[in-house]
């Protein structure tokens, strides 16, 4: 079987994001990209990428790099290539940073300096087409140490269409799988009561179905709303729907 078709088949049969990520990182390493970051949020605003807690971030970078850019001060918000991706879709060479150095913000220059310190200097970023108005997703492919941007551009010239297609397939597959962000994980019971609400059951209906009091049902809903960072049960259902964490309570 053609290696790319074999890869596609393996991705299509994945049942978890962790399994998918391992397969994809291995495949991208074959092209010279040994460190990847994938980010996806369904909760952007006109002026922001939305809360970090609501963003799915997958990374094969060393933990210290992730901590520097994505955890402590959320410097990733100032990344030059994220700035590019916020306004564009498709694939972009990191030569864009060099060509637009005079337009970078103070935060963008700081991210560039950190990237240099961590040998994140050559690569490509793929910005995926929006699946919904507030959705945004991208993949940053870092080339292995020793490769220059010119050499990476040559790799892309030869294999770019295949690499971009493989990343699009991964993105679409992720969109179909349950996603876990940094929000506190819902318990099975909290998810269940949201699922019953989602098909139109009242608190008293749910209490009868699962054998608890209506007050207990409301307690589960209150905790679920708090964990998800929303004010209403309708907002909670919408949020976990975006993350593919809700299904029919009968299933």
From TrEMBL:
Protein origin, superkingdom: Bacteria
Transmembrane segments: none
Positions of the HTH luxR-type domain: 179-244
InterPro entries in the record: Sig_transdc_resp-reg_C-effctor (IPR016032), TF_LuxR_autoind-bd_dom (IPR005143), TF_LuxR_autoind-bd_dom_sf (IPR036693), Tscrpt_reg_LuxR_C (IPR000792), WH-like_DNA-bd_sf (IPR036388)
Entry keyword set: DNA-binding, Transcription, Transcription regulation
UniProt keyword RNA-binding present: no
Keyword Transcription regulation: yes
Classification via Pfam families: Autoind_bind, GerE
SUPFAM superfamilies in alphabetical order: C-terminal effector domain of the bipartite response regulators, Pheromone-binding domain of LuxR-like quorum-sensing transcription factors
GO molecular function: DNA binding
GO biological process, one term: regulation of DNA-templated transcription
PANTHER family: DNA-BINDING TRANSCRIPTIONAL ACTIVATOR DEVR_DOSR (PTHR44688)
Protein name: LuxR family transcriptional regulator
Organism encoding this protein: Aliiroseovarius sediminilitoris
């Amino acid at each position: 079987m053609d290696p790319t078709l074999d890869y596609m088949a393996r991705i299509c049969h994945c049942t978890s994001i962790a399994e998918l990520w391992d397969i994809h990182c291995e495949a991208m390493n074959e092209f010279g990209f040994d460190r990847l970051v994938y980010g996806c949020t369904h909760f952007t605003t006109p002026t922001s990428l939305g809360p970090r807690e609501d963003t799915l971030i997958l990374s094969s970078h060393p933990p210290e790099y992730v901590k520097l850019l994505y955890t402590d001060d959320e410097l990733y918000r100032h990344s030059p290539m994220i700035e590019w991706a916020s306004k564009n879709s498709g694939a972009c060479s990191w030569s864009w940073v060099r060509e637009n150095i005079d337009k970078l913000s103070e935060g963008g220059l700081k991210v560039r300096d950190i990237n240099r310190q961590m040998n994140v200097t050559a690569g490509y970023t793929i910005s995926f087409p929006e699946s919904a108005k507030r959705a945004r997703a991208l993949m940053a492919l870092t080339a292995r140490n020793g490769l220059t941007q010119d050499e990476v551009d040559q790799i892309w010239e030869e294999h770019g269409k295949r690499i971009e297609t493989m990343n699009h397939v991964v993105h679409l597959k992720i969109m179909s799988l349950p996603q876990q962000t940094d929000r506190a994980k819902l318990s099975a019971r909290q998810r269940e009561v949201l699922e019953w609400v989602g098909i139109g059951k009242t608190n008293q209906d749910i209490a009868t179905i699962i054998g608890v009091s209506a007050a207990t049902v409301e307690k589960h809903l209150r905790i679920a709303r708090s964990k998800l960072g929303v004010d209403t049960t309708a907002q909670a259902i919408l949020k976990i729907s975006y993350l593919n964490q809700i299904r029919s309570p009968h299933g």
